[in-house]
């Protein structure tokens, strides 16, 4: 795990222990089993014009269109969901930092919606669901889409999981459900939000699970659904991209876990698997062959390893001085 820890530490994100990884894997597997999601069925939803072509005009109608589109991506077309804005719509178009806007409060945290903030985000009313969106969230596309995804994850749990009514109350479990439904990139973007503002750079988080936890579950989801990771990496920020790549290495070395997630997720939920039951990257790449000794040979090997997804430590071992140099 040295390579994982080094990259994570570089971005202020500490690596997870194997105990934590197993707990996440088993919880994710339980959700997949409970939701009865066929492997290969969920989409990999990306925050781009292909998946979100509608013009967003920062009003109730735009939020309803966005929620309806995401409801379709989640496979919840049969659920009756009414979207309700909670609180006053924010005033948009104010001056930004650096243009005199700081004095007008443009950089301040949005005010609470009062009593509206205490109402649940999702609520069952008869045969329908009410999905409440705090009006202040429509200013931020990252927060808005992540919170909508989480709400849909909670609704999916309540509708489909045998123990869903209770589990839907947990924001963390709702986020895992959202990843299972295909919204992992949206959640990851909200888990580590780097911004420059009047007071200088800041890092925020709009998710219950942190970047490390979501990255590992996202890597499991991509492997289970046999989706292409490259398109997702292109939509992620620098920190999320680095952490996902490292999480993907752990998943790549755990084929038994991935296989159970595809064929028998309930078995994976019981913990009947091993992490890293496949040989490490170095052994897979070179088998019993000796490490390349010549500098040019090591550089060539490092380029090949990079194409296969090698970590920083593995690349350093390849390009570093050979024995006796």
Account of the 3D structure:
Strand 4 and strand 5 (200-204) form a beta hairpin. It contains 14 helices and five strands. It has 325 residues and is mainly alpha-helical. Helices cover 50% and strands 8% of the residues. The model is unreliable at 1-12 and 94-116 (pLDDT under 50). The chain folds into two domains: 2-91 and 116-269, no CATH class; 281-319, no CATH class. The protein is globular.
Q: What is the radius of gyration? A: 22 Å
The shape, in one word, is globular
Low-confidence sequence ranges: 1-12, 94-116
Helix and strand sequence = HHHEEEHHHEEHHHHHHHH
Largest sheet: 3 strands, mixed
Number of strands: 5
* Strand composition percent: 5-15%
Annotation field: number of helices: 14
Separation of the first and last Cα atoms: 27 Å
- Mean pLDDT, to the nearest integer, reads 81
Structural class label? mainly alpha
In helices, the fraction of residues equals 40-55%
Number of domains: 2
- Give the strand order, joined by hyphens, for the main sheet: 1-3-2
């Amino acid at each position: 795990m040295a390579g994982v820890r080094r990259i994570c530490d570089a971005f202020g994100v500490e690596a997870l222990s194997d105990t934590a990884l197993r707990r996440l894997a088993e919880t994710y597997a339980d959700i997949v089993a409970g939701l009865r999601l066929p492997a290969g069925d969920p989409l990999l939803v990306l925050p781009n014009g292909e998946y979100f072509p509608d013009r967003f005009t920062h009003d109730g109608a735009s939020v309803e269109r966005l929620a309806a589109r995401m409801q379709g991506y989640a496979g919840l077309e049969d659920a009756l969901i009414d979207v309700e804005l909670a609180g006053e719509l924010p005033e948009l178009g104010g001056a930004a930092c650096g243009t005199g806007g700081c004095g007008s409060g443009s950089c301040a945290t949005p005010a609470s919606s009062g009593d509206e903030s205490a109402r649940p985000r999702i609520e069952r009313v008869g045969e329908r669901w009410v999905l409440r969106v705090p009006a202040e969230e429509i200013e931020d596309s990252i927060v808005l889409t992540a919170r909508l995804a989480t709400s849909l994850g909670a609704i999916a749990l309540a509708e489909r999981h045998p123990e869903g009514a209770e589990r839907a109350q947990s924001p963390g479990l709702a986020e895992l459900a959202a990843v299972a439904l295909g919204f992992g990139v949206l959640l990851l973007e909200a888990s580590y939000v780097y911004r420059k503002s009047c007071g200088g750079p800041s890092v925020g988080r709009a998710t219950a699970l942190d970047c490390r936890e979501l990255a590992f579950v996202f890597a499991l989801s991509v492997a289970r659904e046999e989706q292409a990771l490259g398109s997702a990496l292109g939509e992620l920020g620098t920190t999320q991209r680095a952490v996902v790549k490292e999480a993907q290495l752990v998943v790549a070395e755990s084929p038994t876990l991935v296989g159970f997630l595809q064929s028998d997720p309930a078995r994976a939920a019981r913990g009947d698997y091993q992490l890293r039951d496949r040989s490490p990257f170095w052994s897979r790449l070179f088998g019993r062959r000796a490490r390349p000794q010549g500098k040019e040979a090591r550089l060539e090997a490092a380029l090949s390893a990079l194409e296969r997804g090698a970590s920083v430590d593995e690349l350093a071992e390849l390009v570093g001085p050979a024995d006796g140099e």
